[in-house]
Amino acid sequence: MSETIRVPDIPAPVGQPRFSIDRTGWVTVKASPQWWRATAQSDDWADIAEQLAIAGEDSTDPRMCRVIGATTKMPCKIDTSREPCPHHGEGNETNRCGAQKAKGGPCRWNLVVHGECPNHPQTWQRILEERRKQEEEERQRRADIAERWAAEQAQRERDAQALPCSYCDAESEAPCIRPGTEESASRLHTPRFKLLDHRHAAAQAECTSCGAQRNALCQTSSGKDAADAHAARVRAAAG
Fold first, then answer.
1. Which of 7, 151, 205, 229 to pair with 62, CA 20 to 30 A apart?
2. Is there a contact between 75 and 88 (Cβ–Cβ < 8 Å)?
3. Which of 46, 47, 89 has the alpha carbon at shortest distance from 66?
């Protein structure tokens, strides 16, 4: 870094400075008092300051939080590409203790960052209870989604079984048969589900590709029922 900043020619006993820049763009200069005094009196000082400013701007990483801390007075170095900043990110106020201080005003202790507040331990229990509640709500939400999906799949199986199977010639409501045997298959064959989806699309829209009317299956070029609804009809039904 020091090689990219041009500094005035100062006698060797004074020493040369060392520059460092972090991802917040802040520049640190380590130099002797003699260097600072000599540089301040140099005609090159304004140029050196401008070089340092440009180097800091070029090194700034926009993913860093960079909010100036109320206590440290330094830019925050949390990488927000991985997670929101617990100090300054959206909703960070909910991380604070919040208990009223004896001198007035809410306590600003960050419970998420530092853990239990040493002055108001009861607020930590509040945070833990809120976390447990959120975790339970999330578990319940996922369980509800899984239950609804299972119910939808079960209904889809029943609706498909109500249709005949063109693969094994099973009649409506009868289970599918394993090819070459009289044994029931472990699951319904795919053509039954395709026919179910085809009929659903047919009930929703006409087909602009083959001219099939509503509730009528799409036709192939040879006039036979198509295995699937044409793409235009599927889009129309979805819309």
1. 7
2. no
3. 89
Paired tokens of 103:
């001198």
Query: Do the beta carbons of residue 52 and residue 44 sit within 8 Å?
Result: no
CA-wise closest residue to 36 among 48, 22, 53, 54: 48
Rounded Cα distance between 75 and 25, Å, is 9
CA atoms within 13 A on the CB side of 73: 0
CA 155 to CA 218: how far, in whole Å?
A: 24
Whether residue 233 contacts residue 208, with contact meaning beta carbons closer than 8 Å, is answered with: yes
Alpha-carbon span 120 to 126, nearest angstrom: 11
Instruction: Give me the amino acid identity at 116.
Output: E
pLDDT in tens, the chain (239 residues): 444 566 655 555 567 888 889 999 999 999 888 888 888 888 888 888 898 899 999 999 999 988 887 678 888 888 888 777 777 766 666 777 877 787 888 887 777 777 788 888 877 777 778 878 988 999 999 999 999 999 999 999 999 999 999 999 999 999 999 988 889 999 999 999 999 999 999 999 999 999 999 999 999 989 899 999 999 999 999 88
14 close to 38: Cβ distance less than 8 angstroms:
yes
Q: Using CA atoms, how far apart are residues 205 and 232, in angstroms rounded to an integer?
A: 10
Task: Look at phi and psi of residue 236 and say left if phi exceeds 0, alpha if psi is from -120 to 50, else beta.
Answer: alpha
Instruction: Tally the residues of the chain.
Output: 239
